[in-house]
Amino acid sequence: MGDERAFRTLYEMNVDRIYRLAYRMAGEEDLAMDFTQEAFVKAYQRLDQFRGDAAFSTWLHSVTVSVVLNGLRKVDRHRKRERSLEDAAPVVEKRTAVEPGVRDRIEAAVDDLPEIYRTVFLMHDLEGYNHGEIASALGVAEGTSKARLSRARAKLRESLGDAMQEYVT
Amino acid sequence: MTSDDRMESMLEGIRETYNVPNETPREQMWTEIVARLDTKQTEVLDLSAARRRRAFGSSRTAGWAVAAAAVLVLGVGIGRMTAPTVLSGPAAITLGESSSLTPVEWEHLDRTESLLTMVRTDARAGRIDPATGAWASGLLSQTRLLLDSRDDGQPDMSDLLLDLELLLIQIVGVAETGSMDEARARTELELALRSLEEGEVLSRIQAALPSVQAGA
Q1: Interface pTM (ipTM) of the complex?
Q2: If 0-12 CB within 10 Å is exposed, 13-18 middle and 19+ buried, where does residue A15 land?
Q3: Which of B31-35, B59-63, B174-178, B199-203 is predicted least confidently?
Q4: A26, A44, A62 ranked by CB distance to B37: nearest
Q5: What is the pLDDT of residue A2?
Q6: Residues B129, B131, B137, B142: is their CA dihedral positive or negative?
Q7: pLDDT tens, B104-113?
Q8: A-contacting residues in B 111-170 (Cβ below 8 Å)
Q9: What is the Cα–Cα distance from B201 to B193, expressed in whole angstroms?
Q10: Is the CB of residue B17 less than 8 Å away from at least one CB of chain A?
């Protein structure tokens, strides 16, 4: 009972940030909800280690990032399998008649970032985590987090080219 | 306008639009979490039952290991009489419950067990070797690669790898903070030790490798 009450308090204190991060990474409400729930279920199993401890939030973020990345890999594999079945017929490249807008191009470029760069980019530039928090969540050194962010931005600059200029004007 | 200014302005724009959730469905998720915990209640809350199950699993595993060792001895005897060569090393480890482990997984679990044993000894003494961070970091990358390559045919192994991933993240964190903030590093080291012991991670690794040890 006491555990449940303590857990509910921890849930209330952390769920917004965790769900927001999961949604930023997954981009779909159902997935974000699944990943958030999974992270909290795992957290409950280790609750006694963290009661009243600020380290809980740090640890919960590690669990969340791990759950989301593993979950997205599974979803990706599943979708690729489905696509390969659908595409058994000759592939015709689909092109949209209208060029995507600048914002769509930017978002697609973020989607296309390699996973290790995209995660740091989303956490730092969109969600405002600092490099210490990101390093703890990913199990890397702070320097690695900084280097990945710099690489992510360079890749975005590279893939967007003129679109960035167009976006600000 | 510089390139950095353009990047900043672009970031401000997509911060408001890229995968932004609506309001957090707090109650809906909480109901689901409670339901999932209820179905796992015995596993989650009854730790003594979990330990009993693990103990039963271990004794069963030990039984398999003994049987596997006996078969191995018999096989080696027959092999020596009938074949000119005998296989050795991980590729020959195909008996017992570890038959589904690939040589890469076997080697990874073996190396991780060595690291965790060392960390446990160090943690009990309240210190950690500075070289541990780099070792744990390498194992963390390998754990993630193995997780990525799994198709979930063996949920127990995936669970073990997920627990290893989290534990290795903690150990890397301890090593990283050790040089900067000793008090925080000590707290994190205690947490890592508790995760290691309460998750019975070492026993689970050893249970996954019985016939290897029997045949070594």
Answers
A1: 0.83
A2: buried
A3: B59-63
A4: A44
A5: 59
A6: negative
A7: 888 888 888 8
A8: 137, 140, 147-148, 151-152, 162, 165-166, 168-170
A9: 11
A10: yes
CA of A145 to nearest chain B CA: how many angstroms apart? 13
Q: What is the mean pLDDT of residues A118-123?
A: 96
Q: Which of A66, A103, A138 sits opposite B17 (nearest CB)?
A: A103
Radius of gyration of chain B (CA): 23
More confident residue, B88 or B142: B142
The predicted structure's pLDDT at residue B210: 61
Decide if B73 touches A, using CB distance below 8 A.
Answer: no
Q: Which among B5, B14, B28 is the nearest to A110, CB-wise?
A: B14
Distances (CA, A) of A66 to A55, B35, B137: 17, 22, 15
Contact A59 B187 (CB under 8 A): no
Q: Count CA atoms within 13 Å of residue B172 on its CB side.
A: 26
Spatial separation of the C-alpha atoms in residues A155 and B177, rounded to whole Å: 30
Smallest Cα–Cα separation from B17: which of A23, A71, A114, A75? A23
CB B172 within 8 A of CB B137: yes
What does each C-alpha distance from B107 to A84, B66, B110, B145 come to in angstroms? 34, 22, 5, 14
Helix axes B47-82, B201-208, angle to 10 degrees: 30
